[in-house]
Amino acid sequence: MRVVILGSGRGSNAEALCIAQQEGRLGRAQIVAIFSDRPEAGILALGPRFGIEARHLDAAPFKTKLEGEGEARYIAAVQASAPDLVVLAGFMRVVKPGFLHAFAGRVINLHPSLLPSFPGLDGIGQAFRHGVKITGCTVHEVTPEIDAGRILDQAAVRIEDHDTPDTLAARVHAAEHRLLVDVVARLSLAQAPV
Ligand code: GAR
Prior knowledge:
single chain; alpha/beta; Rossmann fold; seven-stranded mixed β-sheet; 6 helices; 9 strands; 35% helix; binds glycinamide ribonucleotide
């Protein structure tokens, strides 16, 4: 199962996938390319480290969504990698129907809350400020409606009284790393992708 990863930031979840692949824990999944809309994103350093194509791909003209020329560039680059699965791992743009249509049923996203609670930006901060006692992370199919596609799996994280936004974020991220590796490995072993 050929996997393309899109990300905008640190890339700790993409790193977890690369390490799992290296250690033989990613089933039949093979990460074939990593693309980032931010040239300085840490996620791009994974390319040389793991011997995977990784490059900045301009997503202009829009700042918070992938549409127009940027969308066309992403569709062409991702199509050239012939993916069976596209993983949004911290890709901080709204992906529009054009891209989703090009990779129909093959795009999944990781979100740092137990959806349908706390969709959108800063899922961890939203949960912390709301005062819920259990939050977590979700992997779901991507549909045009934000963070609303079919849920593939979730992991729960308890919020302790002594937690700060930072200590909570660290545990949610650790849970994300395990969950994303599990889901991708499982999908790669299933009969049909997603
Ligand atoms: C992750 O926590 C992911 O859930 C979140 O961005 C972070 C990326 O971290 N994604 C979203 O909030 C999407 N709405 P990483 O770059 O270290 O993998």
